[in-house]
Amino acid sequence: MGNNMKYPRVAYFCMEYGLQSEFKQYAGGLGILAGDHMKGAKDLDLPIIGIGIKWKQGYTDQMIGKDGKPYDSYHNYEYDFLEDTGVKVTVKIRQRDVVCKVWKVEKFNNATIYMLDTDIPENEDTWITGQLYGWFGEERIAQEMVLGIGGVRALRKLGIDIDVYHFNEGHAVFAALELIREKMSEGESFEKALELTRKQVVFTTHTPIKQGNEEHPLDRLQYMGAFNGLTLEQMVYIGGAPFNMTVAALRVCKKANAVAKLHAETANAMWSHVDYPAPIIPITNAIHKPTWVDANILADYNNPEKLWSAHMENKKNLIKFIKERNGVELDPDVLLIGFSRRAAPYKRSDFIFSDESIIRPLLENKKLQIVFSGKAHPLDDTGKNIVSNLVKMSKEYPNSVVFLENYDMEIGMMLTRGADIWLNNPRKPLEASGTSGMKAAMNGVLNLSILDGWWPEACNHGINGWQIGDGFESKDTKEQDAHDLKSLYKVLLEEVIPTYYNNRSKWIEMMQESIKSTKDAFSIERMLKEYYEKLYMA
Ligand SMILES: *Cc1c(COP(=O)(O)O)cnc(C)c1O
């Protein structure tokens, strides 16, 4: 994108960053996207910096017990590559000064990220930056005050000039309260300060699930000190009552985006009862290729034999990885389906097992093997039951179904390179984007997916992957599930399996088409260009 002098300077605020598997600062897709955003910004030499929190324990580590159930465990991680900026800022939380130490992270070929940390001797509230998404109430508010209010203060103290504040998710919205407070302390009225703040802020919304859009009671925010000098009326004007973080972000920004075209439609419908300045525009997510895509695959995809052998190497690496972790030896000549996702009900992780009369013969007669991975949120019992059921299936079909515990970037990378098929069967339209499918597609792993999230933008059925069903939606989830299940089995039995075993040259052509049709369209360079054109410079 060339000379960066004319590009606005951006501070990107996010609760989590997925930079490298062992740097436990991420939970899932949001963090991976943020990590990729920072790496892409560095590659392109764009004037973007990140603001985040340095988590002591990160997100939960998942352990599968002898009883086949998932358990949460937390470890204190220490990192020797964090650079001390020497800067500390203070945020008043529950009437107490909380000191936030500011670390700098540049180790992963990423644009500089500043991470705030309250785990220092001068604090009583060292726990605030302990667990990522551990809690929902006062603790979450305290964390978000550190990110938003502390983040802006850190920028001032570091002496970094910023033109655009990008809130990646509503978690960061308290930063706007600090931007408003700054202007009011210089004599502006609330209305004027809000108007000026709006010119500086952009916002990305990520979830079409209602409960994923955090709300807090106003009395709790007041007690925590999150009003940051504003009045109750002003807070309600911004975020409603209760205070909704997404609504607030929509009202303090000049422009907001959703993370796929379909998601933009869903998001605008979802917030149609709220008035905010402009419609939410789509900027489809993307991935950082050097992180996620095997260089051999990209180099050789024009040559069918070389592509196939590079793929088989990735598949064998995955099989070896599984053997080392789980003791199960999968067969490189049997079609391998990968599925790793957060265990949330709408993702329907155990969907493929719904009709035993269909799935059992495929798994027992060596037509199919499936590898799963995925964590449930520590407080989500429904999600944990889904994980338990996947583990149960791995015991039911010990030679053809595997559950890899503790889904992380490494597992994500192994699976999106080494599987033959990437299965995605969410209840439409609840999957906002789904970047794992992009990783798979560029590695020549064929997507078999519901037409949700990013997939309608890429899918060319039978050419570069497959769609499950026809985009059917229903308010009646039973009806939707029945419809989608029929479609899943139909395309699996009539197209995917026969192509794999009887028409290998067509399969390889599809792999080539998968790579060709996605490698630029869903690369982080395209995405960053859009962020600049449609959001930062808008
Ligand atoms: C890519 C990735 C994600 C996001 O994938 P989805 O398709 O949104 O589920 C989440 N977690 C990890 C570890 C990843 O690598």
The first-to-last residue Cα distance is: 17 Å
Task: Report the average pLDDT across residues.
Answer: 96
User: What percent of residues are in strands?
Assistant: 15-25%
Continuous helix count: 19
What does the overall shape look like?
globular
CATH class of the largest domain: Alpha Beta
Radius of gyration, Cα only, in angstroms? 23 Å
Bound molecules: pyridoxal-5'-phosphate
Total domain units: 2
Low-confidence stretches: none
Alpha-beta classification: alpha/beta
**Helix coverage percent of residues?**
40-55%
Total strand segments = 19
Strand order of the largest sheet: 5-6-7-2-1-8-9-12-13
CATH architecture type of the largest domain: 3-Layer(aba) Sandwich
- As for the CATH topology of the largest domain, it is Rossmann fold
The major pleated sheet works out as:
9 strands, mixed
What name goes with the CATH superfamily of the largest domain? Glycogen Phosphorylase B
